[in-house]
Amino acid sequence: MKILHTADIHLGAKNIKLSQDKQTQLREEQNRLISSLFEDAYQKDYDVVLICGDLFHSKNVPARILANFYKAVEHFSRPVIYIKGNHDEKFDLTSIPKNFVILDDNKQSFEYNNTVFWGEISAQELANNIDKTKSNILMLHGDIKNKNDRDFVDLQQYLSLPLNYVALGHIHSNEIFKINNIDIAYSGSLFSNGFDETGRKGYIEVLLDENGTYEHFVEFCSYSYMIVTCDITGKSSYKDILSLAKEQLKSCKPKDLVRLILTGYYSEDCEKYLSMLESDLSNYFYFEIIDKSKLMIDFDKIKSEELSFKAEFLLLVENGEDDEDVKNKICQIGIEALRGDDLSL
Ligand SMILES: [Mn+2]
């Protein structure tokens, strides 16, 4: 049996920080990706698709997105098995395609090709109903580690049962592991929806045969949110900063949403030309720079300057009664202000 395990698709989610135009483009891309997910699943002969919760972001998903999703599911024609997550608890699932199987309180299992898929079932009930002669796959949505999470799931109590695979949803990064010799995985979210979800996104391919269970992550989403840090300490010109930033951005693709964070210290004679840097580097779907770099101030050199306003300022602060840390902070901000720079407040 060949299974495509996904979760946390969050259809209808928006990144409100993006312009309306970019939001629309991203939404269209997600629609296209949903169609191609099920088309690929069909072409590559997956037997079933599992969706472990948070398929919808809220109960109000635009009709066009829903119609596109249901059409893709229908086209796949084999079972698409779904359990609800905390985001789609209240979603109305009335007009769904025939091959879309919902596991909930009313229907706790679904059997296909000698494999039983279980969802929304307590460990006790599962223990009473499980049939060892078949393959058994448990689907859960929740946090298995953090007991304080409202959606905590106590996985341990299921792990003495004869399960072949546990498909998890809720945590948005993918993770494959084994406990008590049972293969378990979080597929992670299919798309990311912000800079708090960086890295490549995709699904888990699970192969089940008489010898065991094998699974691996398949990168699928065409874009990622990427955060790249660039320490400009020691760079003496705009050209140097630009080439360092280019080097650091090497792993980013044109379809990515990229945040470049400048850190470190730059010398007084080095100009960063941030807007030029932004336009020289902006080969991405979305690009932003966050400048956290600070001016490196050679206090001794400034103080030795004659008839200098900056020198007068530093001496004034130095003779004050604040402690050293406060004095340094005042000097840093004062010199930045005198240069007309952004203040590192
Ligand atoms: Mn989620």
Task: Please outline what is shown here.
The protein has 345 residues and is α/β, with parallel strands linked by helices. The protein has helices at 20-43, 63-76, 123-129, 238-248, 274-281, 299-303, 309-318, 324-339; strands spanning 2-6, 48-52, 80-83, 100-102, 109-112, 115-119, 135-141, 165-169, 175-179, 182-186, 202-209, 212-219, 225-231, 257-263, 265-267, 286-291, 294-296.
Topology:
Layout: E1 2-6, H1 20-43, E2 48-52, H2 63-76, E3 80-83, E4 100-102, E5 109-112, E6 115-119, H3 123-129, E7 135-141, E8 165-169, E9 175-179, E10 182-186, E11 202-209, E12 212-219, E13 225-231, H4 238-248, E14 257-263, E15 265-267, H5 274-281, E16 286-291, E17 294-296, H6 299-303, H7 309-318, H8 324-339
Parallel strand pairs: 1-2, 2-3, 3-4, 6-7, 7-8, 8-10, 13-14, 14-16, 15-17
Antiparallel strand pairs: 1-11, 5-6, 9-10, 11-12
The structure holds manganese (II) ion.
